[in-house]
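Example 3.2
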Amino acid sequence: MEVHRRSFRGTPASVPAARHFVREVLHHSGGTGCPQADMVELACSEFVTNALHHTPSGNGGTITVAITHQPGVIRLEVDDAGTAVPPLRPVLPDELAESSRG
């Protein structure tokens, strides 16, 4: 199984670039399409966005995306400059907020 890997700068422009990379790998590797490609692209987008917002990678660092696939199995990895245990931050409840609920 071949691992496709690419590193991106820690900037917002990396989110669509990483999605494009995943799309290209899933649609063109081996000449077959992938019915789950849209879901994997979305997951990649979310992972890269989280890395930008919550790790030092978003402050001029890098983010590496790796993807492997074979029939019935897709593995997506996003490596960032974060730590294993994130520091706890107090969060003030906001009933109208669209984030910080998880």
